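Protein in question kept underneath.
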Amino acid sequence: MLSARKAVRTMASYHPPLAGRNGLRLDFNENTVGCSPRVLERLRSLGPEDLAKYPEREPVEARVAEFLGVEAGEALLTNGVDEAIHLLCETYLEPGDEALIVVPTYSMYRIYAMAAGAEVLAVPMGTNFEFPVEAVRERISGRTRLIAIANPNNPTGTVAGREELMAIVRCAPDAALLVDEAYFEFCGESMVDARRECPNLFVARTFSKAYGLAGLRVGVLVGDAKQMKAVRRVCSPYNVNAVALACLPEAIGDQEYLDSYVTAILEARSRLEMWLAATGIPFWPSQANFVLARVGSSGEEAAEFVERMRRRGILLRDRSSDPGCAGCVRITLGPRKHTDRLLGALQEVLEELSVGPGAWRP
């Protein structure tokens, strides 16, 4: 009887709760207002012939490389950052190799590494989600072939410093270090300029978050040109669809729109963090477009909190199942009108849950 590989049979699957997402989407770190009007204009201009042809990735790839300040051979457009992770696992991992991740973090690092047959070692963050640089270095061995770090991290919004990341990449010259900068626009710190100094360093970016193109599935992987040649060997020449390729130049060309959106999100982040502090709800200062807050002591309390917000038309993400995140919810940020609505609903839910003996309190 046909059977999937053991690595596939034994790994946990990832099922994001996408069904029934009716309301203000503050649960998946998406852009809550949408993409640049220039992208919509380009979409409307597409005709039947544009969709009938196989997509040509290279011209847009060269444009994105120029935008990032790297050579064309150092950048590869991917079907979201997910594909970038998958390609690195396929390129560098053999069955029996080790992959290091720092938890809590994005689930797909573990899944793709396990699918390649690697053993995944999870290094926990510090008590307040500090980046555990020494613990990571201690776990590096001769079997370590991949280290994946989200920076800023999801779901915590915390960051690893440049010197901490450089210490790790230098400590593991035989391993690929992926720095996933999906939330770069809200932080401003990048490792892209270190790619030539460290040929085992890879940096991923996405156009799903700040640029509002999550539905088009497009990201970019940057690395040493020689290493990128190997990664390209396992990549389909048609991995990014024609619609995404047509729209991406317009998205990166409208930096005024992007800057306006990012400014609004940073203002919203400050407002939410100040409100949480004033209310006494524990949270972790974020460098991303979301904030992680502890609204209870258990998954049941977090689930109840999320459900009461959903009844008010606002979707939040329960992260209680992540290591160290019991009772935590992740709140995506939107512009001022969305933040006004969010804070009003949060206040109502807190008042509800603070009534009666044994009720939840921050």
In short: DSSP finds 13 helices and 13 strands in the chain.
